[in-house]
From TrEMBL:
The protein's name in its UniProt record: Cryptochrome/photolyase family protein
InterPro entries noted in UniProt: Crypto/Photolyase_FAD-like_sf, PhrB-like, Rossmann-like_a/b/a_fold, UV-DNA_repair_photolyase
Entry superkingdom: Bacteria
Species name: Pseudomonas putida (strain ATCC 47054 / DSM 6125 / CFBP 8728 / NCIMB 11950 / KT2440)
Coiled-coil region list: none
A Pfam cross-reference name: DPRP
Signal peptide segment: none
């Protein structure tokens, strides 16, 4: 007989490795293991999600006629690692071959390839662009840009395309319409909640007991754990969120963790949703006039553009990618990333909801917590580990390029053409946080001035050798050069004193 391995982020019925097996003859192995739950201090909500979704998936496979060997975390003999469990079960069952699908993370795939096991690998066909196809696309180019990749994906999939091969609405991109701050009276739609069944409640108790040393808690777990629930979450977004997604994609608001974002990333990344079906639904919603084009295009761009692009880059450049540090940063991650205790209101809100919900939307990750880490010169490995640990949707194939490449510019511009550095003015424009903040966003050098302001200029000054030749930063370097020397010195000094406070372990 042959054994099929299904990992915690491979909970899809149409997995290529499953399709290659015969339920009448072969068996499936799924294992909850310490090694996967502890290689970073995952948010307990993420561990609940993975274990509960795994248990539900095992049940669903059994209902479809599969023989499933499911190893619970506390099961006797659990070796604590995926490789260990494969050795144990291969021997116990006398399996001649182990069929498995490409892993999401290089770390685990390498450990499996290094193991003396009779492995038969299958492509992860849940992505629209295979690792090999991305590799061919990348090697044909001198410079990689998401926009070029995305246009190719639009043509290939036919999503939002006219019959004559032109993009819907005559443009590839409606970002100009997508940068609106949230009007004062507008709120995001109510969030969809999912009640815990007995399986989830048992997992919540297990995780509470075994992972209390990880940051964050398990209270209030309300996330989908089955395909049917994930579909309800998706339908909720189609009905209530998508139409305004484009307009307020970059907005942030006090006490609004989700706004018009779909909150589907964790369900999608573990296989409870299928990317092609999501995109088809969005394309249809636009064609039927239910949502505007800027919303549909903005959303599809994230899925067939950014999501597939960052995965391609990850597999193209690993393992060396994880060690890059182009800006030569060495500062430790401030403790307040793990507690949310900072007077910076935008940071406290983004970190607070992250620790509470295991979720922050893209602009919070990129322009608040990410921007601060970039400006403060945090060592990339530390901030990457933070992003991998705290979000329910975090898997290295998507987290690492976003953090190391897009946020920290640690790959020297391989993924994106410029660092997304910004002063407090950006956060003020896109949110209502500054009004509730004890720092003054309109000041730069004073004691109560917004820390983002001086740190922004400090960043540009200290990285002039690496960044000043970048044409996309020409304007900001011109305005830096236009600053009176005395003012520039004061800004630099304020930046120095903020960084010294961080180095002394003080919160800002
Ligand atoms: P929406 O805003 O509703 O977007 C819809 C979907 O588009 C998302 O579910 C996601 O699948 C996809 N998407 C959007 N932006 C990106 C992107 N930049 N890269 C890849 N996919 C994208 N996303 C993860 O899934 N896992 C991560 O570990 C992760 N780490 C990130 C780290 C940093 C520093 C940054 C800046 C972004 C990261 N993202 C990550 C991307 C993005 O922030 C999340 O996908 C998004 O916030 C998830 O919430 P949502 O489902 O409500 O997304
Ligand atoms: C994230 C995660 C966790 C917390 N636990 C498990 C587990 O116990 N068993 C398992 O098969 N998968 C788990 N996962 C998902 C894996 O970490 C994921 O498959 C790898 O990171 C490779 O993508
Ligand atoms: Fe954030 Fe600065 Fe605004 Fe405070 S003033 S909320 S620190 S941007």
């Amino acid at each position: 007989m042959r054994l099929g391995l299904v990992l915690g982020d491979q909970l899809s019925f149409d997995l290529a490795s499953l399709a290659s097996l015969d339920p009448a003859r072969d068996a499936v192995l799924m294992a909850e293991v310490e090694g996967e739950a502890r290689y970073v201090p995952h948010h307990p909500l993420k561990i609940v999600l993975i274990f509960s979704a795994m248990r539900h998936f095992a049940q669903a496979l059994r209902e479809r006629g599969w023989q499933v060997h499911y190893v619970e975390l506390d099961a006797e003999g659990n070796s604590g690692s995926i490789v260990g469990e494969l050795h144990r079960w291969q021997q116990a069952l006398g399996a001649t071959h182990i069929h498995l699908t490409e892993c999401g993370e290089w770390r685990l795939e390498q450990a499996l390839r290094d193991a003396a096991l009779p492995l038969v690998w299958f492509r992860d066909t849940r992505f629209l662009c295979s690792r090999e196809a991305f590799g061919r696309w990348a090697t044909e180019r001198r410079q990689l840009r998401m926009e070029h990749f995305y246009r190719g994906m639009r043509k290939r999939t036919g999503l939002l395309m006219e019959p004559d091969g032109s993009p819907a609405g005559g443009a590839w991109n409606f970002d100009g319409d997508n940068r609106k701050p949230l009007p004062r009276q507008l709120r995001g739609p109510f969030a969809a909640h999912f009640a815990q069944d007995d399986i989830t409640a048992a997992v919540v108790a297990l995780v509470r007991q075994r992972f209390s040393d990880h940051y964050g808690g398990v209270d209030g777990f309300d996330y989908p754990v089955t395909h049917a629930e994930a579909q309800q979450l998706w339908q909720h977004f189609l009905d209530f969120g998508l139409a305004a997604f484009g307009d307020y994609q970059d907005a942030m608001a006090e006490g609004e963790p989700y706004l018009f974002h779909a909150r589907i990333s964790a369900a999608l990344n573990i296989g409870l949703l299928d990317v092609r079906r999501l995109c088809d639904d969005v394309d249809k919603a636009w064609r039927e006039g239910r949502v505007p084009l800027n919303a549909a295009e903005g959303f599809i761009r994230q899925l067939i553009g950014w999501r597939e692009y960052v995965r391609g880059i990850y597999w193209q450049r690993m393992p060396a990618y994880a060690g890059l540090n182009h800006l030569n940063n060495h500062r430790a991650l401030p403790e307040f990333y793990w507690t949310g205790r900072t007077r910076m209101r935008c940071m406290a809100q983004a970190i607070g909801q992250t620790l509470r919900l295991g979720y922050a939307h893209h602009i919070q990750r990129l322009m608040v917590t990410g921007n601060f880490a970039l400006l403060a010169g945090i060592v990339p490995t530390a901030i990457c580990e933070w992003y991998l640990a705290v979000y329910m949707d975090a898997f290295e194939w998507v987290e690492l390029p976003n953090t190391l490449g897009m946020v920290m510019h640690a790959d020297g511009g391989y993924l994106g053409s410029k660092p997304y550095c910004a002063s407090g003015r950006y956060i003020q424009r896109m949110s209502d946080h500054c009004k509730a903040c004890s720092y003054r966003v309109d000041q730069v050098t004073e004691e109560e001035a917004c820390p983002f302001n001086a740190l922004y200029w400090h960043f540009l000054i200290r990285h002039r050798p690496q960044l000043s030749a970048n044409p996309r930063l020409a304007l900001v370097y011109r305005s830096l050069d236009g600053m009176p020397a005395g003012r520039r010195d004061a800004v630099w000094q304020r930046g120095q004193s903020l960084l010294a406070r961080l180095d002394a372990g003080q919160a800002l």
